[in-house]
Design a protein that fits this description.
Length: about 240
């Protein structure tokens, strides 16, 4: 599959056209940002890990009936995916209090919820990705109610599956962010990535952070944490 012109460059990935109008190639970078781009840095080897890990997880989700954008891993950093129109919502599922949830509601991190929560943010960097409920999303026609309900259903199913995959390798899934897209026929599919950039992952016994919070909070050991998650999930493949 040939890489044609660059269509887009995001904070962590570049997207290229291919000869097939329904297929694009994503190319994962080592660049890391936090707090809406205010904090910038590099996590060496992150692009390779996130590409491989996200594809591994999406293959497992596909096997469980979740449609994703994944077509084929092309190289360490490149993957062919279905071209989608992104639904401009960041879909966040939480199992344990942390991050902006803990801050917003004035509670400590680490409270285990009886059942998962879901929230949306409007994907709009200029506005700082404001929190948004489903009625707001429908009012702004970011998605139809049928699409919103489908997205919620997928998000909770993904949570159950992902929690299980991670628990089996000694990791607690605290929270994560998903993005969904619409393919040419209108079907909603899981898009973007699932990686330590987009999840909070804590070791189940030590509660050590194995995710991007190490970068956000200047904790050090960022590369090692990403490597560790990949090693546990994928072995030495
Ligand atoms: P939050 O606690 O900062 O709202 O983050 C919740 C989860 O979403 C956490 O696992 C990190 C992820 N996330 C992203 O992937 N991208 C973002 O831009 C933000 C704000 C959070
Ligand atoms: N994804 C970043 C974060 O987690 C936000 C950004 O890229 O600006 O904090």
């Amino acid at each position: 599959m040939k890489k044609l012109e660059q269509l887009y460059e995001g904070k962590a990935k570049k997207v290229f056209a291919t000869e097939d109008p329904n297929v694009v190639i994503v190319d994962y970078k080592d660049d890391a940002t936090a707090f809406n781009g205010i904090k910038k840095g590099t996590i060496t080897g992150k692009g390779v890990i996130n590409n491989r890990m996200s594809n591994h997880i999406m293959r497992k989700l596909e096997a469980e009936g979740i449609p994703t954008h994944l077509i084929e891993e092309l190289s360490e950093r490149e993957t062919a995916v279905k071209k989608v129109t992104i639904v401009p919502l960041e879909v966040i599922v939480r199992n344990i209090s942390a991050g902006s949830f803990a801050k917003r509601y004035g509670v400590e991190e680490g409270i285990v919820f009886d059942e998962p929560t879901i929230e949306f943010s409007y994907k709009n960097d200029d506005l700082g990705d404001p929190l948004m409920n489903a009625y707001h999303a429908a009012a702004l026609k970011l998605a139809t109610w049928a699409e919103i309900n489908q997205i919620k259903d997928y998000a909770f199913r993904i949570n159950t599956l992902l929690k299980g995959f991670l628990k089996s390798v000694g990791i607690d899934l605290v929270d994560f962010k998903l993005e969904f897209g619409k393919i040419a026929d209108g079907q909603i599919v899981l898009a973007d990535e699932i990686s330590p950039d987009t999840c909070r992952l804590w070791d189940e016994t030590t509660h050590e952070k194995l995710d991007k919070d190490r970068f956000r909070r200047d904790m050090g050991g960022v590369e090692d944490a990403y490597q560790e998650v990949m090693r546990r999930l994928m072995g030495d493949k």
